[in-house]
Amino acid sequence: MAAQETTPETHAETDVARKIWLAGVGAYGRMFSEAQGQFEKIADSANDMFEQLVERGAKVEDTVRAQITANEPASKVLATVEKVTKQAADFRAERRAALEARVDTVRKTIGDTLAPLNLIGLHNQIEELAAKVDALTAEVAALSGNKTVDAVATKVVPATTTAPSAPRAVKAAAKTEA
After folding, report:
1. Which domain holds residue 52?
2. Does a structural domain hold residue 153?
3. Residue 11 lies in a domain
4. Over the chain, what is the mean pLDDT?
5. Residue 135 pLDDT level (bands cut at 50, 70, 90)
6. What's the rounded Cα separation, in Å, for the pair 146 and 137?
7. Residue 171 and residue 159 share a domain
């Protein structure tokens, strides 16, 4: 392959392309600066306008409060509004408590209804009961000194096995006992 030759024409074309690129970047920079300046002006004027509105609102509020306190019927209306607002808040709290009580009752009912379908819970309960049975069997054996109870207890398959094999193990232990 022959090396690319750089001619004055290709150098001039590259220079023009670079100048076009730089002109675009310059235009973007100028637009960004002008937009940023306009944004700052708008933000400053918005902040000033907000402060003016706050001051005006404070004055109006003071004026309205003074008129309400000077006017007896308006004071009664204000007292009534406060009373009704308090009653509404109390009623809402009471209804919320009643609703939470109902939800708790429904959760308990559903939990009790679905408990037989909870296989993990049933498995855990079976494990606990099997451990209690084993402990009681060992206590009975220790108290009576009966070897047959001890022999049956040792031949029973632990509770971690599947349910169908456990009755077979008990039957097998009973057969060897006889």
Report:
1. 16-70
2. yes
3. no
4. 79
5. very high
6. 11
7. yes
